[in-house]
Specification:
Elements (H helix, E strand, L loop, with lengths): L33 H31 L11 H10 L9 H17 L13 H10 L6 H13 L6 H28 L5 E5 L2 E5 L3 H13 L3 H8 L5 E6 L9 H13 L2 E6 L4 H5 L13 H10 L4 E5 L5 H13 L10 E5 L5 H12 L3 E4 L12 H7 L2 E4 L3 H19 L12 H6 L2
Parallel strand pairs: 3-4, 3-6, 4-5, 6-7, 7-8
Antiparallel strand pairs: 1-2
């Protein structure tokens, strides 16, 4: 149940979106409404990630104060970049002093009740304006969790949906981004590495920085090659998959079938979550996996040495998708994330953590499709969401139909951008590449 106090390994299954009495675990007998059931899932998922992010923040402070023997600041460049981004003076200061100030500043993100979360400024300006207009720009993580609990405990539905959307944004642009970025500072920002896990080989470590480096190289280090290949049609669009380790049963065949259909249709796939093994066993997360891709995506993978599925990390690393999307908007000179020929999918079963993550994607402007048959479609999550946020939930259990919907969405976005007809494909020589700088 979503209102159970424990989280993590004991996280329960997501409450179905239904207004009727439903069969749940033995201890559950009450009627759960569409509103309170779904929103309480968001609160519980956000609370789990809040505990995780707070712990990592305290570890950064302890590391910088030399209170954790054997630990140190591994990525000083990212430390300086984030500190400067958040207004911390860096010039001429020891890195540990900067890290302590950064950690203490971030620690305030959980308790504060006024202003906005610091990392919200990373989103495109238009997206920030949408959140402010709707009143869903979160100020403090703990405040937004407790506000949901108060509304649901009093059986009040007033502003409950909006509070749920605030909480999901606090999770993605707050908890997850804090945890991933501070972990990078302490452990080093991931870079592509070939790993052998359970007798299966996969390339992992595609942080946003690694994606930029892999596509642009040290010479240009830019997302322009990705944008150019989306415009010319070699890459039809981008689909991001996420899942969370939990007690909910997952269908590995569904995930593999979906991904194979997407890359066959030239859709580049990004992955975050705890169950990449089925994709690795199917050979989709290594360079040779390009053999399963369409001609356009295959040519790009072959040219730059990338797998057709880029593993961006575990479930907290879903924020890397938000960071990459925002960077694409900026470099592609677009207005918003909702303009991108991109979408999100969670083909596996969903628990509270996954619902909190998924709702953040929707509120950030993404079409987000779930393969969990227990989640029932509702107007508040589909039509109403699309009108307000430019993103929406969709539900489909058949992986081929799911892929069909995602590709149709990507094609719709391509048409809106005027790139539905691929340009003549040109093989760039070195002189032409230099002109792109």
């Amino acid at each position: 149940m979503a209102d159970k106090k424990t989280t993590g390994k004991n996280t329960q299954e997501a409450i179905p979106l239904t207004n009727k009495k439903v069969k749940k675990n033995k201890a559950a007998t009450e009627t759960i409404t569409t509103t309170s059931g779904f929103i309480r899932n968001i609160a519980t998922g956000t609370e789990f990630y809040s505990n995780q992010a707070r712990k990592i923040t305290k570890e950064l402070i302890a590391t910088a104060k030399r209170q954790k023997p054997g630990f140190s600041i591994k990525d000083e460049s990212k430390l300086l970049q984030i500190a400067a981004e958040l207004g911390i003076q860096t010039g001429g200061r020891p890195k540990n002093d900067i890290a302590v100030e950064l950690g203490e500043l971030i620690l305030n993100e959980f308790d504060k009740q006024e202003g906005e979360l610091l990392f919200l400024k990373r989103a495109p300006q238009k997206r920030q304006e949408i959140w402010r207009k709707l009143g869903v720009a979160p100020s403090g993580v703990d405040y937004d969790i407790s506000a949901i609990k108060k509304l649901t405990e009093t059986d009040s539905n007033q502003n409950l949906f909006l509070q749920g959307w605030r909480c999901s944004l606090a999770n993605g642009w707050g908890n997850n981004m804090i945890a991933a970025e501070l972990q990078d500072i302490m452990s080093g920002t991931p870079s592509p590495t070939l790993q052998n896990i359970d007798k299966s080989v996969m390339v992992t470590g595609f942080s946003p920085e690694a994606v930029i480096y892999s596509l642009g190289g040290s010479f240009r280090s830019s997302l322009h090659p990705l944008i150019d290949n989306i415009i010319n049609g070699r890459i039809r669009g981008i689909a991001a998959l996420f899942n969370c380790g939990n007690g909910v049963s997952t269908n590995s065949d569904t995930q593999v079938t979906l991904v194979k259909e997407l890359i066959k249709n030239d859709v580049l796939v990004l992955f975050t979550g705890d169950n990449a093994l089925p994709l690795a066993k199917s050979g989709l997360m290594v360079y040779e996996g390009a053999q399963y891709a369409g001609d356009g995506l295959h040519s790009v993978c072959e040219a730059v040495g990338l797998p057709p599925v880029l593993h961006m990390g575990t479930s907290i690393d879903n924020c890397r998708i938000l960071i990459t999307a925002s960077a694409l908007v900026k470099e592609g000179k677009l207005e918003d994330i909702s303009d991108l020929p991109a979408c999100i999918a969670s083909p596996a079963g969903m628990n509270e953590k996954a619902i909190a993550i998924g709702q953040c994607f929707v509120c950030s402007g993404f079409y987000t499709i779930s393969g969990d048959s227990r989640l029932v479609e509702s107007k508040e999550l589909t039509e109403d969401m699309e009108k307000k946020f430019g993103g929406m939930w969709d539900f489909e259990t058949d992986p081929m139909k799911m892929a069909e919907k995602m590709i149709a969405l990507i094609d719709k976005k391509r048409k809106a951008l005027g790139i539905d007809n691929a340009r003549e494909r040109v093989l760039y020589d070195m002189a032409m590449r230099r002109e792109l700088i």
